[in-house]
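We include the entry.

. . .
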Amino acid sequence: KEYRRQRQMCIRDSLGIAYAELNKYSEAIKALKKAYKLVKSDEERYMVCYNMAVICMNANNLDDALNYAKEAQEINNSEDIKEVISNIEHAKQTKRKPFKSNLLILESNN
């Protein structure tokens, strides 16, 4: 059962990334919200929140992007998430489109 949950979560995360790479942000967000419902570990939650932050940022939904980024930062205050937060805050202050950031890929342990 745990393997199946983790597999479904990874599939949803990967699907969200694929949609994002096609600039289909609403579909990407839907897929990642489904992945988020399946997360159990902090590592999974960090990666899904990080990806949601990047996708929302790239879709110019900066308030949601910042919320997801801050949630990810609470789990892991990495340089990557600090850079995403800085990028979002800069875009909000300057009213300019943010720089695109890379997405993280979840890898199954099985």
Summary: The chain is about 75% helix and 0% strand. The two ends are 13 Å apart (CA to CA). The mean pLDDT is 88. The longest helix spans residues 2-21.
